[in-house]
Amino acid sequence: MKKIALVAALAAVSASAFAQSSVTLWGRANVTVESQKIGTADRKVVVQDNRSRLGVKGQEDLGGGLKVSFALEHGLDIDTGKQTGGAFWNRESSVQLSGAFGAIRLGNWTNGSYFATADYVSMHNHDTGTSDDKLYSGAGWTSANKVGYFTPNIDGFTAEITMHAGEGADKRAFDLSANYDQGPLHLGAGYSKQGDAKQYAGRALYELGEFTVGGYVQREDVNGETRNIWRLAGMYTMGASEFHVNYGDAGRSAVGAKANQLTLGYNYNLSKRTKVYGFFTKLDNKDNNAGDLNSLAVGIRHNF
């Protein structure tokens, strides 16, 4: 009888906990079949993962507008079933306290400066797989051991201020980003710095009926060696179909090669969560042919 009473008590506690909080399992399965030519190697056909992921997130309402939440995100290769990166929760592992003041987050997550610029204009395949932006600079990038503050949304304006602790021999890092989304106009800016490596970028995107056009300009500075990087992107929608084109260019420096990249893509949205698509992407490395990439792909992406 004591065991039965204990089980009943635990069940009551669990039911109460679930009533006060919510936990969601979510993710993305994204894979293509591609004809690839990398560098000077022979062309080959491959099954290619496009940054598939599995995540768990939850939130508890503490009352008075105060909420606590967490996010755990695991990257995996759909084509092999293997995890990506060394850590299991390699994409994100964080806990956050939010309210009218905004939010304070601790842990590991992707820099806001990236989402505010390069990722925002990567409309074809969310900057994943072989058609991702090969030119965007990650100078000053650090995702682990961070403390960040997120402002509330004020008339379309939001910002993120993040500091990396710099544990052990690792240097401290800073990441700043800002976004403005109001009507058809979307603006963003980002800055990151760690030691002698830093980057800053600005982004603009405009929606005009079936057409969407955008781009970003970035300045990379590593040990005093600088170069400019930019990308333009466009999308035309017609019913469930999307037609994409984007082109990027990176200048030459002592720490970076001169290169350009062209991507043409087509998406057909079977639903809000599922699409079939195809693309052609070509990366032309002007300083080293071994870094060239040429790929023709068809695939499917499902968000859950």
TrEMBL record:
A Pfam family that the UniProt record links to this protein: Porin_4
Signal sequence segment: 1-19
Matches recorded under CDD domains: gram_neg_porins (cd00342)
Topology within the bilayer: Multi-pass membrane protein
Gene3D superfamilies reported in the protein's UniProt record: Porin (2.40.160.10)
Coiled-coil ranges from the UniProt annotation: none
Primary location recorded for the protein, binned into one broad class: membrane
Keyword vocabulary terms for this entry: Cell outer membrane, Ion transport, Membrane, Porin, Signal, Transmembrane, Transmembrane beta strand, Transport
Domain of life: Bacteria
SUPFAM superfamilies the UniProt entry points to: Porins (SSF56935)
Compartments (UniProt record): Cell outer membrane
Subunit structure: Homotrimer.
Protein name per Swiss-Prot or TrEMBL: Porin
